[in-house]
Recover the amino acids of this structure.
C-alpha cells in the first residue's frame, strides 16, 4: 500500500465492556494502521479486557468511561477533546450503539473528521425513526463483512448502499500451514494419534449449540470417533448440560474439553473435521482458519456461513439443530476420501484468493481513505 498519505490519524472508538471477536478484530485494525505508518489510537473503558489488551500489547489508547447509551455528556466532552488534541481524521466505530456519542462529539468539537461504521455484527432491527435518521445522515461510510450485512444496513436505515464497502476478515494463511505431520502434533498436545478427531472451537454457551454436535456424535457409526470441544466457558450451566449428556451417553472416553487456547493453528491441524454448529453466524472466521489448515468443514446453513461455503464444493451445510443430517454429513466426510479431498482443496484455493490478511488489511485502509469518506 502506498503510504504517501500516512499523515492521516485514525481513532478507534470502543469503550465496550465485553471482549470477543469484534473487539479483538478492531484492536488488530489499530495495530494494522500503525504498521502501515498511520497515526492510530484506541478509545477504551478503564479496567475492561480491551483496556488490558491494549496495555499488554502496547497499543496506544486513551480512556473514555462512557456510561449512558445516547446522551452521555461527559463521554461526548472527553471524546471531543481527544479528537481535537489528536487531530483525528477518521473515526472507526465498531458497534452501532456507539454512533450517537461519536456523532455528537464530532459535530461539536471537530467537524472536519470522518466517521466510518465498521459493522461486524448482523442486525435486522429497523432504525428509521427521526433520531436514527439523524445519526446515519452524519456517517461518512460503512464497512461490513458480507453482502447480506450490506443488504441489512440499507434495508433497516437510510444509509445509502453506495457508501457501504464489503471487506471480510482476513487471516495469515501461512500460520495454519504447519509442516509437522498430524500424528506428531497430536502427540505434542496429548491427543489420540489414530482417531478420527472432530473439532469445534467456540465459546461454551447455548447460542453456540455444541449440544447438536454431541447429539450427532453419539449416533455416529464410526468406531474410531473422537470429539474435541474448545472454548471459554461463558455459561457454566450450559457446560454442565453438555458434560451430563456426555456421561449419560457413555462418551467420556471419546471426548476432550480444551479451554480456549492462543495456539489455534496447532489445534486445528489435529482435526480430521471441523464443525460449526451456531444457528446464526455473522461471518465465521474460524471456518476460514479450518480451511487454511486443510481441514474439511461442516457448518450451519445461515447467512454468514453461506458467504463462505458453497455446499458440496468447499464445505458442507446443515440446518441448525438437525443432528440427524449432521450425523450423515460427518459419515460422508469420514468415509468418502474423494469428497473429503475435493472439499479441502477447493476451500484452500478459495481462501487464498479471498481472505489473505495482507490483502484485506490494505483494502480496509484504502477504503477508509476513499475520497467519498473523507472531509478534508
Amino acid at each position: 500500500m502506498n503510504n504517501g498519505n500516512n499523515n492521516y490519524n485514525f481513532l478507534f472508538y470502543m469503550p465496550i465492556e465485553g471482549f470477543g471477536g469484534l473487539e479483538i478484530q478492531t484492536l488488530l485494525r489499530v495495530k494494522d494502521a500503525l504498521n502501515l505508518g498511520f497515526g492510530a489510537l484506541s478509545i477504551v473503558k478503564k479496567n475492561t479486557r480491551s483496556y488490558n489488551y491494549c496495555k499488554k500489547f502496547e497499543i496506544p489508547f486513551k480512556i473514555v468511561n462512557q456510561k449512558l447509551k445516547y446522551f452521555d455528556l461527559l463521554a461526548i466532552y472527553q471524546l471531543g477533546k481527544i479528537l481535537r488534541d489528536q487531530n483525528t481524521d477518521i473515526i472507526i466505530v465498531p458497534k452501532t450503539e456507539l454512533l450517537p456519542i461519536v456523532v455528537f462529539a464530532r459535530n461539536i468539537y471537530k467537524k472536519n473528521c470522518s466517521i466510518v461504521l465498521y459493522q461486524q455484527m448482523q442486525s435486522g432491527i429497523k432504525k428509521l425513526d427521526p433520531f436514527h435518521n439523524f445519526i446515519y445522515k452524519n456517517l461518512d461510510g460503512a464497512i461490513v463483512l458480507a453482502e447480506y450485512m450490506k443488504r441489512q444496513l440499507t434495508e433497516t436505515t437510510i444509509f445509502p448502499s453506495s457508501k457501504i464497502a464489503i471487506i471480510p476478515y482476513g487471516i495469515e494463511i501461512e500460520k495454519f500451514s504447519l509442516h509437522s505431520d498430524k500424528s506428531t502434533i497430536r502427540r505434542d498436545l496429548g491427543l489420540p494419534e489414530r482417531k478420527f478427531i472432530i473439532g469445534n472451537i467456540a465459546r461454551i454457551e447455548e447460542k453456540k449449540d455444541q449440544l447438536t454436535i454431541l447429539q450427532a456424535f453419539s449416533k455416529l457409526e464410526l468406531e474410531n470417533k473422537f470429539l474435541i470441544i474448545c472454548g471459554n466457558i461463558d455459561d457454566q450451566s450450559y457446560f454442565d448440560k453438555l458434560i451430563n449428556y456426555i456421561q449419560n451417553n457413555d462418551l467420556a472416553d471419546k471426548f476432550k474439553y480444551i479451554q480456549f487456547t492462543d495456539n489455534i493453528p496447532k489445534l486445528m491441524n489435529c482435526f480430521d473435521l471441523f464443525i460449526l454448529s451456531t444457528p446464526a453466524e455473522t461471518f465465521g472466521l474460524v471456518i476460514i482458519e479450518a480451511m487454511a489448515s486443510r481441514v474439511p468443514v461442516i457448518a450451519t446453513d445461515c447467512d454468514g456461513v453461506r458467504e463462505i461455503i458453497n455446499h458440496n464444493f468447499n464445505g458442507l451445510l446443515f440446518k441448525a439443530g438437525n443432528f440427524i443430517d449432521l450425523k450423515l454429513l460427518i459419515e460422508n466426510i469420514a468415509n468418502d476420501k474423494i469428497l473429503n479431498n475435493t472439499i479441502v482443496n477447493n476451500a484452500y484455493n478459495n481462501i487464498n484468493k479471498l481472505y489473505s490478511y495482507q490483502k484485506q488489511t490494505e483494502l480496509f485502509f484504502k477504503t477508509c481513505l476513499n475520497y467519498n469518506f473523507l472531509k478534508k
About this structure: The domain at 9-170+357-368 is CATH 3.40.50.2000 (Rossmann fold). The chain has 15 helices and 13 strands. The mean pLDDT is 93. The two ends are 20 Å apart (CA to CA).
